[in-house]
């Protein structure tokens, strides 16, 4: 299991290095009333965890029913194909409509839903910087219409990508890159829980990982896990190359466990957040498969998927089909 998932913060007090901004959000949670918000800052600084913690504070056991998250980055990268195959949205998807019209329809549907045992629900948009102008203009009108029963939270790396009409309606809160000492503290806590001694990973290595991660706690934890699995000393350049290999190993483990949803999520992370093409993802899966489970059926499926890409097939659709085929033909 990836440590970034295993040690993902679940409560406000678990989010380190953002004391000022978390105090504001936690105050809104205690008052059971929040404004529209724009949470911006680099990856791995706690934005998504803060929204989930806020929902738990306000709604308690009903947080899942009252918090809806739309992954704008995936939506506007993969387009209508993703909507058609995403279980949460497939019943709302209209094949004859454009992507923007589908977006408006889905957002209106979620925003108009009656809150469950609450005065309002929360609709959050991850990677809101990927929302094109037309989508943001439509979102602004929806915000005006449904603001009484729905609060909108946008999560983005850059606030400058949000149009003024939305920005002016939101409370902007900046999540700063984590200081190196905070990143080191988090890594030491994980090492204690994993029973890893300071002899295995000395402080100098932790300082090096923190410096190289540039305030991204998620990246630091990934490097820490790779270092813990190595038998020799850490090489930060090698670690950066190994980060993709670690994700590829996690992807293959999910495939072996026949967990399509988790496999799909990891593959999308590799393509969107790490910039890999579908061909590069196939190559990483191939290397991992040869090492972990050398089965000729997997090689044939990988070859078919690689050929389909040369015929201009949709990259995300081909990767999803590849995952599905391996699970059904090899691990089911």
UniProtKB/TrEMBL annotation:
GO cellular component: DNA replication factor C complex
Record Gene3D superfamilies: 1.10.8.60, 1.20.272.10, P-loop containing nucleotide triphosphate hydrolases
Pfam family, one: Rep_fac_C
Domain of life the protein comes from: Archaea
Domain Replication factor C C-terminal: 251-324
A Gene Ontology biological process term: DNA-templated DNA replication
Similarity annotation: Belongs to the activator 1 small subunits family. RfcS subfamily.
Cleaved signal peptide residues: none
InterPro entries (UniProt xref): DNA_pol3_clamp-load_cplx_C, DNA_Rep/Repair_Clamp_Loader, P-loop_NTPase, Rep_factorC_C, RFC_lid
Entry GO MF terms: ATP binding; DNA binding; DNA clamp loader activity
Keywords linked to the UniProt accession: ATP-binding, DNA replication, Nucleotide-binding
UniProt protein name: Replication factor C small subunit
């Amino acid at each position: 299991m990836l440590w970034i998932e295993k040690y993902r913060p679940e409560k406000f007090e678990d989010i380190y290095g953002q004391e000022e901004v978390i105090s504001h959000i936690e105050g809104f949670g205690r008052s059971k009333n929040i404004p529209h918000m724009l949470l911006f800052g680099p990856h791995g600084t706690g934005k998504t965890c803060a929204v989930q913690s806020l929902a738990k504070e306000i709604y308690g056991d009903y947080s899942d029913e009252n918090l809806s998250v739309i992954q704008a980055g995936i939506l506007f990268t993969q387009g209508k194909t993703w909507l058609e195959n995403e279980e949460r949205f497939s019943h709302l998807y209209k094949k004859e409509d454009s992507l923007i019209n589908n977006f408006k329809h889905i957002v209106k549907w979620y925003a108009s839903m009656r809150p469950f045992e609450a005065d309002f629900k929360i609709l959050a948009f991850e990677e809101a910087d990927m929302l094109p102008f037309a989508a943001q203009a439509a979102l602004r009108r929806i915000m005006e219409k449904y603001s009484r029963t729905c609060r909108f939270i946008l999560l983005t790396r850059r606030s400058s990508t949000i149009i003024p009409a939305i920005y002016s309606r939101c409370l902007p809160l900046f999540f700063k890159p984590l200081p190196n000492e905070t990143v080191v503290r988090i890594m030491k806590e994980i090492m204690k829980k994993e029973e890893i001694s300071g002899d295995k990973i000395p402080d100098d290595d932790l300082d090096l990982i923190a410096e190289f991660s540039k305030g991204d706690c998620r990246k630091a934890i990934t490097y820490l896990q790779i270092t813990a699995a190595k038998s020799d000393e850490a090489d930060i350049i090698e670690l950066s190359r190994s980060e993709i290999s670690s994700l590829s190993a996690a992807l293959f483990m999910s495939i072996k466990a026949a967990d399509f949803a988790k496999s799909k999520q990891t593959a999308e992370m590799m393509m969107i957040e790490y910039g890999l093409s579908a061909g590069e993802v196939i190559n990483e899966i191939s290397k991992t498969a040869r090492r972990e489970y050398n089965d000729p059926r997997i090689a044939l499926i990988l070859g078919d998927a690689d050929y389909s890409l040369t015929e201009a097939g949709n990259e995300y659709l081909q990767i999803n089909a590849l995952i599905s085929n391996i699970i059904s033909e090899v691990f089911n």
